[in-house]
Amino acid sequence: MNPKVASILENADLRHLKPEELAAMSQYVNSMPARLEAYRSLREHELEIMQWVAEQLQAEMPVEPVENLERSIKNALLMLRCCAMAMLLNDESFVHTRLVTWLAPRVTAYNSQNIDSTLYGLMNHRLNQVLGSDRMAVLTPLLTYAQTALPTAQPTAAVEGEVAIGW
Q: Above 50 in pLDDT, residue 76?
């Protein structure tokens, strides 16, 4: 549950809600149908979306070892599921706690930033096609947060006169 809503509910027996607390609770409750619809749609189409992404990724990166592509696809699937749950809960901190803290070191260790960059573009494109703009409106902020919180691809070529040491 959203931490702000949870803290409101903790003190519910002591007093009535303040106007700003009531507004936060109202926003949380009123956005629930849209979040539920987006979650259900994502759950129903997950296999179709990720299969398309996997096929496109392999076509765009044919020389990349399959095990590297599979690892990134599995991580992206975990990201998508985590973001979906965070969307349902309306809690961005869920993404950080449950995904970013352990996935960021993994991305760095396997040096999968280039694959992931291509993968995220494909995944976001397909999600928009399948889910549509209304459902994506509630999911996009969490996907964006997750994708930008993870390590990004490093330039592959050094600027003239500089030495690329990979740090």
A: yes
